[in-house]
Amino acid sequence: MGRRRILTLAAGLSTTLALLGCTTTEEPPDLEREPKQASAELDAIDASDLQLPLIVEPLELVEPGWDLDVKHLGDVFLSARSGDERLDFSAVDSNGTTLWQAQRPTGCTGFTMTLDSEGQPLAVLTDSASDETCTTEVTASAYDLESGEQRWGPTEVPGPMQGPGAVFSSDDGDEAVALDPDTGETAEESSTSRVLGEFQGTILSVDEDTLSASDEGKTTWKIPLSDHDWNADGLTAFPDQTEGLIHLDAKDGSGPVIDAESGDILDDSASEIARDANSEMIITRDPQGLTVIDAAGTNELPVSLPKSVVLEAAVGGLIYLREGETLRVHNAATGSIARGYPAEGSGVVAVPDAFTSKGLGTLRAGDRTLLATDRVVEESAEGQR
Fold this sequence. Notes:
Blueprint (H helix, E strand, L loop, with lengths): L5 E3 L27 E6 L8 E2 L7 E4 L8 E3 L2 E7 L4 E7 L3 E8 L6 E5 L5 E8 L9 E7 L5 E7 L10 E3 L6 E3 L15 E6 L2 E5 L3 E6 L2 E7 L11 E2 L7 E5 L5 E5 L5 E6 L1 E5 L4 E6 L2 E6 L2 E5 L7 E7 L2 E6 L2 E6 L16 E2 L1 E5 L5 E5 L2 E9 L9
Parallel strand pairs: 3-30
Antiparallel strand pairs: 1-29, 2-8, 4-33, 5-6, 6-7, 7-8, 9-10, 10-11, 11-12, 13-14, 15-16, 16-17, 17-18, 19-20, 20-21, 21-22, 23-24, 24-25, 25-26, 27-28, 28-29, 31-32, 32-33
């Protein structure tokens, strides 16, 4: 069993960074909306005031200045700095190089990533030429995630991005559409169905009897609602999703975790999920506790889970759980307490967030968002970072 280690978070954890969007209806200021290529390598930061997970300790950290939650596909990360007059979006690769930048009104915080039919990753940003709050005359445009080259848009949509994925809804919720990642046109849906989300090209909808997934206009799988006692009106998608999975709220904040490609139900009553991109393990929290799902099957871990505990992340075979201002790390194979941080350390605890299969990704340290790059730290003669 690993050495017991519970970390106190010096500056608290911010799982959702507050977005203070402007509430006026003034027109946005002049903005540089079209992505500008940058190819600028960000400088490494001094991380001596942080407690870093062991998995990133050898790596250089950069600070892109992001305030919004970070999304990533492959080795590219996307988010925005939130200022008084605009949002500054930037796409940064795992080397810590800014690939492109684009500006949007302060209220246009909705953005997502998706895949076209060729598997090319796209960034979808929202905009409004007339409304700084981005609630009227909203449009969406898609850009090549790596180059920033425009792929389609601007496409008029009924309102702000609702998600998950490229799904947009009017303020009253009466109209919701999903956009085709290839064309930006509204994906065709039956008049009797309701769109639940767009998951990297897979569009999920529900009608009175059936949950259906479609890709390029063709149905890929269906699940009868009666097989699982799901109610069509009560079925919604959680706003935060995990790559390759669909997580739905079927009742009271919990519901099925579905393989987006096959339609297989991996867990039928999960309230939280995480995916370890390194090991391909899926971790779900359900009434039985923590369950690890991988190619070998399912494994219920002997981990105490009071309601106040939050599943933060799964990286490198470790599970990060938060309870209040403390963090504890468990071995994903055994459930035992594990050593995720150096035995001795002080400062703000940096918690893993969005990671790639190569063990590179973002960390939240208080109100800062950092990116662990593929650049290795060159230690000083005194052995300091």
